From TrEMBL:
CDD domains: DUS_like_FMN. Belongs to the dus family. SUPFAM superfamilies: FMN-linked oxidoreductases (SSF51395). This is tRNA-dihydrouridine(20/20a) synthase. InterPro entries: Aldolase_TIM, DUS-like_FMN-bd, DUS_fam, DusA, tRNA_hU_synthase_CS. Transmembrane segments: none annotated. It comes from Aliisedimentitalea scapharcae. FMN binds at residues 15-17, 68, 137, 169, 209-211, 232-233. The record marks 95, 181, 184, 298, 301 as: Interacts with tRNA.
Length: 330
């Protein structure tokens, strides 16, 4: 059965380079059965010209999972989208929000906000060759653009291709002078503009992104009428706070998970990874925040940060790290 990525998009974990790799997504999926997970950005040239198909590797357990592509050549993006759909991804997303230099020089990411016609061509070309949803992640504008002016035109162009779902990071990107990290914090957030876009484009499924730090904040946006909320850094750093009760609190199904149980469920996965020549640290680096704010969290972090990269480290180190984490008392 085809996974319903749109339903899952009520709450999604943002694409984050170096963070939302397959191990991270496996963990997040154990925490929430329902939320939509995004890959790190994979560039179309890497897949199509570089043949780097290993970048598409993922586990069946991750669904619903969306592949984020970077690129600006419609033909190449269509080829990459086809590869992604063939690899089993439930959605193909085009990155129009990433401001990093490397990405700008390839003329993709946030710089595409200045060329909505090209974005429309890309999205149309991708949509023609795949059956799964093609979606866009964008900013509200870049540089000197006036978001009130450009964002409606941008969304209108995307919609004209048949694309029905978009995630808006509710701040501008400055293409010169700010680092990618600064571009995630310094340009001010304008949530109201995103809400106005939903009123103006009621037939578009619109998710809001940027600075959302809790499920209760996410609920406020959903209650005000947005279709979805995407959470990045908070989901990564405090995965239990954001994801362990998301099924119950956002999707109205299932029970809240105890992260201690999730750690135990990770052990066979860790075992398998290590027996295939992988390192413990490659998985546990995504697990450090699991007990944030809970007694024993410091011990958990310390044992794993100090020991998991050492040769021979395995599941027993995880058990040792868990020793001081207090069980949740009812
Ligand atoms: C480490 C890191 C890597 C990121 N990589 C990507 C990326 O590959 N593609 C993308 O569209 N956005 C990327 N982003 C931006 C996030 O998807 C998200 O839009 C941003 O962090 C704002 O959401 P937040 O405040 O909930 O974190 C990245 C963010 C971080 C922190």
């Amino acid at each position: 059965m085809k996974n319903n990525a749109q339903k899952a998009a009520r709450l999604s974990v943002a694409p984050m380079m170096d963070w939302t790799d397959r191990h991270c997504r496996y963990l997040h999926r154990l925490l929430s059965n329902q939320a939509l997970l995004y890959t790190e950005m994979v560039t179309a040239p890497a897949l199509v010209r570089g043949g780097a198909l290993h970048l598409l590797a993922h586990s069946d357990a991750e669904h619903p999972v969306a592949l984020q592509l970077g690129g600006s050549d419609p033909v190449e993006l269509a080829q990459a989208a086809r590869l992604g759909a063939e690899a089993g991804y439930d959605e193909i997303n085009l990155n129009c929000g990433c401001p990093s230099d490397r990405v700008q020089s390839g003329a993709f990411g946030a710089v595409l906000m200045t060329n909505p016609g090209l974005v429309a061509q890309c999205v149309a070309a991708m949509g023609e060759v795949v059956d799964v949803d093609v979606t866009v992640k964008c900013r509200i504008g870049v540089d000197e653009q006036d978001p009130e002016q450009v964002l409606p035109g941008f969304l209108d162009q995307i919609r004209s291709t048949g694309c029905r779902r978009v995630t808006i990071h509710a701040r501008k990107a400055w293409l010169q002078g700010l680092s990618p990290k600064e571009n995630r914090d310094i340009p001010p957030l304008d949530y109201d503009l995103v809400h106005r876009m939903k009123a103006e484009f009621p037939d578009l499924h619109i998710s809001i992104n940027g600075g959302i730090a809790s499920l209760s904040e996410a609920r406020l946006h959903l209650d005000r009428g947005l279709d979805g909320v995407m959470i990045g850094r908070a989901a990564y750093h405090q995965p239990s706070d954001i994801l362990a009760s998301a099924d119950r609190d956002i999707f109205g199904t299932g029970e809240a998970q105890d992260p201690i149980d999730i750690v135990r469920q990770m052990l066979p996965y860790i075992d398998r990874h290590i027996s295939q020549g992988g390192r413990l640290h490659e998985i546990t680096r995504h697990m450090l925040g699991l007990f944030a704010g809970r007694p024993g969290a410091r011990h958990w972090r310390r044992v794993l940060s100090e020991g998991a990269h050492k040769t021979g480290a395995g599941p027993e180190l995880v058990e040792q790290a868990l020793m001081r984490v207090a069980p949740i008392t009812a």
